[in-house]
User: What shape does this take?
Amino acid sequence: MNQSYPSFEEIIEAQKKLVSMQQQEWLNHDLYTPQFWLLIFLMIVPWFIWWRIVRKSRLCEILLYGMFVLTIVTTLDEFGCQLILWEYAYDVEPLFPRLIPINFTVLPVAYMLIYQYFETWRSYLIANLIMATLFSFVAEPILVWIGIYKLYHWEYVYSLPIYVVIAVLVKWLIQAIMRVQRENCVK
Assistant: This one.
């Protein structure tokens, strides 16, 4: 039977070629550049800062919050890159072609700090709106300007509501989880 679409084996072969190309591009283009070192810095330093100022009495709750943020932003980033809405010209490693320092460090740490310091919904929403505005209209353009972030079918303004929705969704989810925990600890 003649197929008009690629077979699974053809897809695997294309993927092998793509991985090889990514490794070569990373070794010859990304590794040890100023962008590479900036990303290493962004991947490590925020966690040290966070550890020094996180409320240890709420450590599990805040870390759970951060892990939900990390999961959501990494998933959304994967969709965006796969749909070629945006892509990254630099990264800290070649095999996981998503912006690890931002998805695994900068965004979770920023969201966790806001979650920790702004406990009422009103203050939390205001702080997250400010953060979303800064990420959308300052941080993202800087990443474009220094060549790390490439926009294809995306505008900065599209990011703003996504940052805010993530904040609302994760705070609501954590509050629900904490409520269940409190109810079960009383029994």
In short: The longest strand covers residues 86-88. DSSP finds six helices and two strands in the chain.
